[in-house]
Amino acid sequence: MQSVVPKRTSAPLGATDSLNPKLRRKQRNGVAGYAFVSGYFVLLVLFGVLPAVYAITLAFTSTGGHFVGLSNFVKTGEDFRFLPAFEHVGEYLLIWLGSLVVIVVGLALMLHSISRRVSSAFRFIFYLPGALAGAASVLVWLFMLDPTVSPWREFLSLFGFKNLGQTILPGHLPIIFAIIAFWAGAGGWIVVTYGALNNIPNELIEAAELDGAGAIQTALRVKLPLIKKWVTFMLILAFAAGTQLFVEPQLVGEASLGLISPTWSPNELAYYFAFQDNNFNYAAAISVDLLVIGLLCAAVLVFRTKLFEVE
Amino acid sequence: MRLFNRIWSRTFAYVVLLGFTAFFVVPVIWLLLSPTKTDHELVVGNPFAIGTLHNLSHAIHVMFTFEDYALLNWLKNSAIYSFGGIVIALACSIPAGYGLAHTQFIGRRTLLGVTLFVMIMPATALVLPLFLEANAVHAVGTPWSVILPFSFFPFGVYLAYIFYSSSVPKDLLAAARIDGCNEWNVFRRVALPLARPIIALVTFFAFVANWNNFFLPFVMLPNSTNYPLPVGLQDLLAATPAFNPGQGGQVPIYRPELAIATIVAMAPVLIVFLFAQRSLVSGMLAGATKE
Lengths: 311, 291
Hints:
The structure holds two protein chains of two kinds.
Chain A: H1 4-19, H2 21-59, H3 71-78, H4 82-113, H5 116-127, H6 135-145, H7 153-158, H8 164-167, H9 173-198, H10 202-210, H11 215-226, H12 228-242, H13 247-255, H14 266-275, H15 280-304
Chain B: H1 2-33, H2 39-44, H3 53-65, H4 70-102, H5 108-120, H6 127-136, H7 144-151, H8 154-167, H9 170-178, H10 183-194, H11 196-212, H12 215-220, H13 229-239, H14 255-286
């Protein structure tokens, strides 16, 4: 009996140490976990959450700091520049997303039907202009669209364009921005789509061919349905990014000698309210509009497609 | 008949692919050739003719000495902002990805979810809110107003998380703990050295995103001496008579010079692309699926 007692007294000590290691690990881990994410967490709060919260606060208050409800949203919405800005971007998105579905998917299917080595060279070439995203791509295309120096001047003259001013008329901008977006961005999407096609099991394609399907039929009836969720993924991301158009109209506007409105896109309009009118509340209201669009796109991607399964 | 169809559809595929190759490549070739020619030659000559070294060195000289070496200054700024942002982004995102993948704490899943959300949302959506915030704390115009938002790179956290949860087994870390490592040393001595490929990947993506970013520095930095290259390009565009013959004329920046500036702006990213092609491509796919 006596020998048991010391053992018993030592047992609870041992329990914390070895009998319940899971609990201990979890606690120790907990503190360590916070330490590992702390730096990122601070950045997330300061440069992700706080600006959004502050923009929302500004959007619902007056310049004097009083709560005004939806008034800023209504007033910016009724502004004569508001609807055109969204229409411009809408037109651009229609062309850009259409070309993604038809051309990007089409090219990826073609690349998938030829030999791997040749297709990898093509993919690299298509991907390369991605290095010139942003301001550089716009400058390059100002040259390409200028009938006096463009390597495609004969092609441009078919449309009767004689100088840059005629090519970049305001009505042409949606398609021009879609071409620039395609030039700099399509390659990346072709690579992604091609990767998705590569994930299709070979047996499925062979089975279709045994059943007598030609190359085109296999592409459209077997491959295409299997990469549908990737196409959705691409469209949502391209849509979200496309609503944010800023650098393209800004630079082309600069080259157009005032022909193009400085409030061509919603982001430009928000910028205009902030910097020309010094009305941060209006600017915030439009930013919140755009933020909501971005959030909705993210929500659809996260909750409706199963592409981002975290564990 | 089937053989005929096959040949026909393959020929069609090659014709289309070559056509698009021209579309993607011609602008790059034209851009690289144009500084070797004079502005006049660009207008009257064959677009793909190669000019002279003399023209090239003249254009380089004019562009680089313009406004007291403004181009070099912008280049320096671009480098400072991009790399400053990358260093902080790496220091925060690699440990965060590791913590999310291999430790347990309250709020972990929430943090993961929020990361996913902000990663998908276009970064541009936050630019004006960031400006309003920076303006409220009087940080506008400082390099930090660009570097710190650059450091917030949720995609890097996601890439690190995917890497650690799929490629680094828990047993390996447990073994290190049994050998007496504390949590910090497990990370520093085991997990961090394994992360070399993912560090390279995050660096590439952050570099391309930071280097090409226009909107954020455009709103944050009102002073031309603080501009990074993309914003500097817009400045050149506003001053040059190249596209608007009526405009100015006092600035000696014509199309060959403008092409030099564009080449300088794109060269670093192009070089990164050429050397990191494979990892960039695999990263684009890794960003979307957990394989």
